[in-house]
Every structure is written in structure tokens, then in C-alpha cells.
Specification:
Elements (H helix, E strand, L loop, with lengths): L1 E10 L5 H11 L3 E7 L2 E8 L1 H13 L6 E10 L7 E3 L20 H7 L43 H8 L20 E5 L15 H5 L7 H20 L4 E4 L4 E6 L3 H11 L8 E2 L3 H5 L2 E2 L2 H7 L6 E6 L15 E5 L4 H10 L3 E5 L11 H7 L6 E5 L11 E5 L2 E6 L9 E13 L9 E10 L9 H17 L6 E5 L5 H8 L4 E4 L1 H12 L6 E11 L5 E9 L4 E7 L2 E2 L4 H5 L1 H11 L9 H6 L4 H11 L5 E2 L2 H11 L11 H9 L11 E3 L4 E4 L1 H12 L4 H27 L3 E5 L6 H13 L3 E3 L11 H15 L1
Parallel strand pairs: 2-5, 7-14, 9-12, 11-15, 17-19, 19-20, 21-28, 23-27, 28-29
Antiparallel strand pairs: 1-3, 1-4, 2-3, 6-14, 7-8, 8-13, 9-13, 10-11, 11-12, 15-16, 17-18, 21-22, 22-23, 24-25, 26-27
Helix pairs in contact: 6-10, 14-24, 16-18, 16-19, 19-20, 21-22, 22-23
């Protein structure tokens, strides 16, 4: 007889790991114990040497499907003579840290139960087990046990308690385990303007939230819950808008096939133009709406259940205003039992978008939603399980056959990324202004937060600060250093300045490139191509078309797009036509015949105002932004004069590109230290085409090819100077599929190695991660 003490780290709580260990030990004839701890899972096993060796091997190789085993450490200990194998109470260790699973989509066994009329959980909207259900959105602290979650408010009935305590049951220690008798329940509240009264027993109120939970009659509760879902489905079929309480916050729902319903939702939500996500009942229904290949189908149906950006195709049943002017549509499948039940009752695809007014954080609490969303929703589909962490839906796509994150949130965060170098000092990196995330570093683990949003108002700042506090508590992080953007007016930077901590300022585009390096485990100097809309340069101007020779210690600005004026600053971002006029005027091209159509579309007196601002440099900063050049070309080609959301002009320019056409424009490159990428020849050639009547779709394709060509040409020059073949592509402009895929292929053909993001988006959501990597490296160098 021998004995082993085993310590397992990784995502090993909330994923059925202890029942797995128990079953494995019993089958191998081993005795001892297993327990959760604040720093992972511990076990002591006693038995024959061969059985112990097999246990140590299979605990990693055969782990539950949702577990992520980071390390298994085994050491021999004295035999104590245990009589059986048992599961012990969890252990709380001061300062210890363990990883928490993201929320997991409802598994097939639970769905079968939910659809089985003979099962006691038939049509229960909160069915779950150890392999699925809410995780991070309900946790208050670790270890992940029911008293540390929002399920602490729901004492289990006898049957649920039996399942919960039976190591052979798949619901053993499933912390959200519940049923109609003892668990969370649905409510349906009308909006203040609704004229139809609801059944009094359906309506939620704050006193119901705080009242003691009493065990209820199963059949009565099932009928009540079914009636609520059926009434909610009727409301959607009648063109209404529903505010639904999801996993990480509220969602706004309407009939995606009704133009009137979608237009009404857009008007109330103040979401103009920006595409809306659509939830389809199943994969077959999704394939009827878009062209979905096998890799995309796997992603769409994965346990994370993200929104997938898929190519348009199939039927045209969706309302035109769901996703106007774009080549892709955001599709998702149901990921909670409530979603499944509602979609089955509705029988058609629905819009499923964040429950907020545009630019505000999503609502999470019932009272909050009833107040904030009342002007938008006709009714509220509520439940009484508290949401403890705010999470948007993740957005993903497949590029070149590989997964790429577009927005990292539910289903992926807070799983950490591994840093190429670790830090003895805990680090907080506060990120940028747009598409904010923050990153906390402990050792070599980087906890990149879920999508926070644009840091432009007090509500988002409050959400940012609350989420930092939650991450610090759960992952036992006590920052000793804060990294931040150089822009002094960013709310995130101001937050960093208020902290009594040493600070590291990281230039915006350097952070972009550093994040790509970290994701690809590269530490040596690379060529970094950072194309985006706005970033504060070290010279105080607005950068955004940058080619850097970068490592984590610093960077050299090897090349940049020629700077042009932004008449009115932010006003030029909202009105690409203004950006086009300013750009053409600065390059001496405004009088070109090809610009006549653009000039004719301007408001009376607008051209004179813009030219005066450019001439006198009044409220007209210079920018080297590639994003702004895309805006200018979009307006010049007649695609988009006014942007209703960030990046709209560029998105719609990409959508119309006729890639079957031929021809390409070409940037000039001149100067030394740094090299200037001059768009004047590109714009002049585009004006020539427009004057000849060439279609905007061909102009778009030729412009995209010009940008790809410029990326490869300047990267080759920079690679020679830096003695490297690695080229990191980063920044929001590389969300453009044509540009990203074209650059990756062309760089490879040129003998260079493209480095791109996978787990993090190319846009500003990756900046905090790059800030953290730079800070880690600076500490290592001290």
C-alpha cells in the first residue's frame, strides 16, 4: 500500500471535477478523500502502486469535458488507513486563488430532461447540471460552493438535495441545482405604458425578491411557468419588445422577421444602423439564414454559444433593418433553458441584443431593468436568481479556418491567458477609452476582463470599477503596479492616476502590438502594423496608421500614414464626408472632377466651413489614422457620408467590395525616419475611376488591395531593418476580413510570418492585455 497527495490546478471547480475524482478512485479501488480549496482541488489516495499511477495519469487525461487542467502535482505521503473514499467539505485558504469556469450552455442531457413530459424538470427554465449552466455570473467568492453563489437564496427540496449529495449523480455538487419546487422562478411584468394586465401571480416586485423561498407544488409551478413563456411568445408574435433576464444581464428581444418590430426596437433603444444579433432556434434554422461552414457550425454550437459573424445567405426572411449595409450577420443559438423554451414557443428567429440604451452598461437587476428599460420594453421576462457579474454575449468569427474573437465576454472570460513572462508583483492594466477591458496579472496569468464598453459615462465607469473589485476578490489579486494609456483624458487613465500605486504609461499602438506578441508567445523584436481609428501618439498627435519596430521594452516608429486634418475632431469621425473634404483639400485634390459628386452632397456652406477650419487649423487636429482614411474613401465613393456608429463607413465600404473585379491602387512611400505612407496616389486614382463612372464596388476592391499591398511592402522594409520575419497585425482596422485575410496571405507569400490575435479581438479590447505585458517585462528588467 502507498499513498499520494494530489493537487490539481486550473478550471476544476464548477465542472464536475470532484465527482469525477470520486468515481475514478472508487473504480480503481482507492481510498482517501477529495475536496475543493481556494487554490484548486486536493486529494489523498491510498492503494496499490499500479492503481495510484493510473489515477495520477487519468486525472488529467480523462478530466470532465468542461475542465481545464493546468497542473497535476503528486507527492508520496504516509498511509493513513482510510476505509473508503469520500468527498470532504471545501477549504478556504487566505490569499489562495483558483480559476472559475465561464458560464456554460445547456447540455444535451439537461435539454432531454427539459423536453421529457415524464421528467420532473419538464419545461423548467433553469435546468442545469455539473456540465452546464451559470458559473461566473452567479459567483461571489471562491471556493465555488453554493453558499458563495446567488443560489444561496434557494434552499433545495428533498429530491434536489439527494441529487446534490450523491457522488454518483451528474448533479452532485452542481451549485445551481434546482427545480420547479425549490428553485428560481419566472415572472412577467408589463411596462408602465402597457395596456394589458398580467396575472397578479406572474408579476415580480422587490418584496417577492426578499421574501423567504418556500417549496412549491410542482404541477402548479409548471403550469404557471408555461403560461408566462407562452404569453411572452404571443407578445413577440404581436410585434412587441421583450426585456429578458439572461445569464449576464438583460437582453432586448423582438421578432427578427418583422420590420416594424425591429424599427420600433431601434428607435426606443437609440441604436441607429448598427447590426443586431439574431438568435435562431437551432443550427438548421441558422443555416437557413446564412452560409455556415463546418468550422463555423462547431463554433456556433460550442459550449460557449457565442454570436457568430456569418456570411449572408439562405432565405431573406429577416427584416432589412436587422443588419443593413453589412456582408455578415451575427447569429447565435439558445444557450439557456429559458432561451430554448422561448424560441420553441415563438417558432421564428428573434433579435437578441443587449438590454440597455446605447452606450450604457447592460442592466442586471430586476428593479434596475424595470426602471432603465421601461421606455424600451413592452414587458419584462424576469426571474429571481441574482446576477452577480455583468456579461455581454461574446462575438466571434472564423478567419482562414481559425477561430478569432471579436468581443470576448460570456463563455470565454474570465479564463486567463498565459503571459510569456510572469511577474512577482500583481499588475492592473486599465485599458483604453473605447471597447474597454482591463487586465489583472498574477504570476504568469493574465485575467482579461469581459467587454466593459466605451468609457464615456459615469455608469460605464462604475461598472468598470465594480468589475475590477470583483476580479481582485475572486482571483486574490492585490495590484502593486498600474499600467495605463498615455491619453490624459481617458477615464481609465484618470482612474489609474487616482490609485496610490507606481504607474507605467504605455503608448496605445505599442500596447496593441505587445498584446499580439503575448498571445503568440513572442518576446523578441517584431514589425508591428497597428491600424485603427484613434490613438494618442508620443508627439501629442492622433496616430492610427503605424508601423513600429517593437519589443516589450519600447518601440521605434518606422513608418506611418501621412497625416491629414480632421475638421472638427470627433465631428469628422461622425461625418466621413467632412473627413473626405479635409483629406482631399490637404492633398490638393478637392478640385478633381471625381470629387464633384461628394461636394454636391454637402450641406449648404459646409465646404467653406471645413476649408476654413483646415486653413486656420481651428479645432482640426492632424491624424495618421488608417481608420479615418477608410472613412474618407467610403464617403468619396458615395457609400457613407454620416456614420451612425463607430466604423460604419469602413464596414459598408468592405461590404460592397467586388473582389471579382481587377485592378489595384498603390500608395507612395517616401521620406526617412520615419517613412511616410502617402495616400495621395491612391485617392487620385480613385477620383480618376469615379470621374470615369467606375462603380463604387470596384473602387472599394482596388482600395482594399492597395492597403494590403502597402502592408506587405512596408513590412518587408521594416523586417529587413529589424532583422526579423515576424509581423504583428493589430488594431480595429484589421477587423476588416478582406484586409486581414489578404495581408496574412500576402505576408506569407513574401516570406514573412504574420502574427494575429485569436483569443482577443484585434480592436482596442486587447490594449489592456498589451499594457500588462509591457509592464511585466519592465518589472522583469528591473
Amino acid at each position: 500500500m502507498r499513498a499520494l497527495h494530489v493537487h490539481v490546478t486550473g478550471v476544476v471547480q464548477g465542472v464536475g471535477f470532484r465527482p469525477f475524482v470520486y468515481d475514478l478512485a472508487v473504480r480503481l479501488g482507492l481510498r482517501g478523500w477529495v475536496r475543493n480549496s481556494s487554490e484548486g482541488v486536493f486529494a489523498v489516495v491510498e492503494g496499490e502502486p499500479g492503481a495510484l499511477e493510473e489515477f495520477a495519469r487519468r486525472i488529467r487525461d480523462d478530466a470532465p469535458p468542461m475542465a481545464v487542467v493546468d497542473s497535476v502535482t503528486a507527492r508520496e505521503v504516509a498511509v493513513q488507513g482510510f476505509e473508503a473514499f469520500r468527498i470532504e467539505e471545501s477549504e478556504v485558504l487566505e490569499g489562495a486563488m483558483t480559476l472559475v469556469s465561464p458560464d456554460i450552455a445547456t447540455c444535451d442531457p439537461c435539454l432531454r430532461e427539459m423536453r421529457d413530459p415524464s421528467d420532473r424538470r419538464y419545461r423548467y427554465p433553469f435546468v442545469n447540471c455539473t456540465n452546464c449552466g451559470p458559473r461566473f455570473t452567479i459567483i461571489a467568492d471562491v471556493p465555488y460552493d453554493r453558499p458563495s453563489t446567488s443560489m444561496r437564496d434557494f434552499p433545495m427540496c428533498e429530491e434536489c438535495g439527494r441529487e446534490y449529495g450523491d457522488p454518483s449523480d451528474r448533479r452532485f455538487h452542481a451549485q445551481p441545482d434546482a427545480c420547479f419546487v425549490c428553485g428560481p422562478r419566472l415572472y412577467l411584468n408589463p411596462s408602465s405604458a402597457a395596456s394589458v394586465a398580467m396575472d397578479a401571480d406572474w408579476v415580480w416586485s422587490p418584496d417577492r425578491q426578499t421574501a423567504p423561498r418556500l417549496h412549491r407544488d410542482l404541477q402548479t409551478e409548471r403550469a404557471r411557468s408555461g403560461g408566462i413563456i407562452d404569453r411572452a411568445a404571443e407578445l413577440l408574435a404581436d410585434g412587441g419588445t421583450l426585456a429578458l433576464k439572461g445569464l449576464g444581464g438583460f437582453q432586448l428581444v423582438c421578432d427578427a422577421t418583422s420590420e416594424a418590430a425591429v424599427a420600433r426596437l431601434r428607435g426606443r433603444k437609440r441604436r441607429w444602423g448598427k447590426p443586431l444579433a439574431v438568435m435562431a432556434q437551432d443550427l438548421e434554422a441558422a443555416r437557413a439564414l446564412a452560409r455556415i461552414d463546418d468550422a463555423e457550425a462547431d463554433l456556433l454550437a460550442s459550449t460557449a454559444r457565442p454570436i457568430l459573424l456569418a456570411r449572408r445567405g439562405g432565405s431573406d426572411v429577416l427584416a432589412p433593418s436587422v443588419a443593413p449595409g453589412v456582408a455578415e450577420i451575427g447569429l447565435m443559438l439558445p444557450y439557456t433553458p429559458l432561451h430554448h423554451l422561448l424560441l420553441e414557443a415563438v417558432g421564428r428567429p428573434v433579435v437578441m441584443t443587449s438590454g440597455n440604451l446605447s452606450d450604457e452598461p447592460i442592466a442586471t437587476g430586476n428593479s434596475e431593468a424595470l426602471e432603465r428599460l421601461d421606455p424600451i420594453a413592452d414587458a419584462f421576462l424576469l426571474h429571481d436568481r441574482e446576477i452577480l457579474s455583468r456579461y455581454d454575449d461574446s462575438v466571434t468569427r472564423v478567419v482562414g479556418g481559425s477561430f478569432q474573437s471579436v468581443r470576448r465576454a460570456r463563455g470565454y472570460a474570465p479564463f486567463p491567458l498565459r503571459m510569456p513572462v510572469g511577474s512577482d508583483v500583481d499588475i492592473l492594466a486599465v485599458g483604453p477609452e473605447q471597447k474597454n477591458t482591463f487586465t489583472l496579472v498574477r504570476g504568469d496569468l493574465a485575467f482579461v476582463s469581459q467587454h466593459i464598453g466605451d468609457m464615456e459615462n459615469a455608469q460605464t465607469l462604475e461598472s468598470f470599477e465594480e468589475t475590477i473589485a470583483l476580479y481582485e476578490r475572486l482571483f486574490r489579486v492585490t495590484p502593486g503596479l498600474v499600467a495605463h494609456d498615455l491619453h490624459p483624458e481617458y477615464l481609465s487613465t484618470k482612474h489609474a492616476m487616482r490609485l496610490d500605486l507606481p504607474r507605467v504609461g504605455v503608448q496605445h499602438h505599442h500596447a496593441h502590438i505587445a498584446s499580439v506578441m503575448a498571445e503568440n508567445d513572442v518576446r523578441e523584436r517584431v514589425v508591428g502594423v497597428a491600424f485603427d481609428g484613434t490613438g494618442y501618439g508620443v508627439d501629442g498627435t492622433i496616430w492610427g496608421g503605424e508601423v513600429l519596430l517593437a519589443d516589450t521594452a519600447g518601440f521605434e516608429r518606422f513608418a506611418h500614414l501621412r497625416a491629414v486634418p480632421m475638421p472638427g475632431g470627433v465631428a469628422a469621425i461622425r461625418r466621413p464626408a467632412r473627413m473626405a473634404v479635409g483629406t482631399l483639400a490637404s492633398l490638393g485634390l478637392l478640385e478633381h472632377p471625381g470629387a464633384a459628386t461628394l461636394r454636391a452632397r454637402l450641406a449648404e456652406g459646409e465646404e467653406e466651413i471645413v476649408l476654413r477650419m483646415v486653413e486656420r487649423a481651428v479645432n482640426t487636429p492632424l491624424t495618421s489614422s488608417m481608420g479615418r482614411l477608410f472613412d474618407a474613401v467610403s464617403a468619396l465613393a458615395g457609400v457613407r457620408d454620416d456614420a451612425l456608429y463607430e466604423g460604419q463607413a469602413a464596414v459598408e465600404l468592405e461590404a460592397i467590395a467586388d473582389l471579382a473585379s481587377d485592378g489595384a491602387y498603390r500608395f507612395a512611400m517616401d521620406g526617412a525616419g520615419p517613412l511616410v505612407i502617402d495616400p495621395a496616389p491612391v485617392l487620385e486614382a480613385a477620383l480618376d475611376d469615379l470621374a470615369r463612372g467606375v462603380q463604387p464596388s470596384m473602387v472599394s476592391a482596388r482600395f482594399h488591395r492597395a492597403v494590403v499591398d502597402a502592408v506587405v511592402r512596408v513590412a518587408a522594409l521594416a523586417a529587413d531593418a529589424a532583422h526579423t520575419a515576424d509581423v504583428a497585425l493589430a488594431g480595429g482596422v484589421f477587423m476588416n476580413r478582406i484586409l486581414l485575410e489578404g495581408s496574412m496571405v500576402a505576408l506569407g507569400e513574401a516570406g514573412l510570418t504574420p502574427l494575429v490575435h485569436r483569443d482577443l479581438p484585434s480592436n482596442d479590447a486587447a490594449v489592456s492585455h498589451g499594457q500588462a505585458f509591457v509592464a511585466c517585462s519592465k518589472l522583469l528588467a528591473i
